[in-house]
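INFO  loader      accepted 1 record
INFO  loader      residues=174
INFO  predictor   begin
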Amino acid sequence: MRQTILFLLIILGLSNCYSQKPNVEGRCLDPKFEKKIINSLNFSIETLTVSQLKESKDGYLLMDAREKEEFETSHIPGAIHVGYDHFEIEKYQDLDKDKPILVYCSIGYRSEKIGEKLKKAGFKHVYNLFGSIFEWANQSNGLEDNKGMETQNIHTYNRSWGQWINNPKIKKVY
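INFO  predictor   done
INFO  writer      dumping tokens
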């Protein structure tokens, strides 16, 4: 009986170790925004920072998991729109499953869910951009609109989420 209880305690302890969120402090300019992100994600998909993406942007297929209106307002240059509400994994089955994919949305929640679907479909190297396009813009990185032109506009999904855009050069669109 004691051995069974001890075994269960060990298993519970190990499961708690694995269910804890990774240490991701210092990834955002705004600590409050960082906390919001940490509390919103499950970390089921490995995250990359904006700095890591900037270092090797050309090595990733960038997928924007926001809705079409958000994407058309602005997106990270080179990204393709995959959406969230109407995401269809079948459209991407012919892509190289070994090519690294970085998914982003506004803060990382929707992109994490799309990343999970990509992993389930057999894509091996899928990453979620920590802070997503909001942190990308907060760190003054370039954005382009649906015509490929540089823009300072960003669709913030709604006014409530817009509070996380802190860069005064960025114009919030709702």
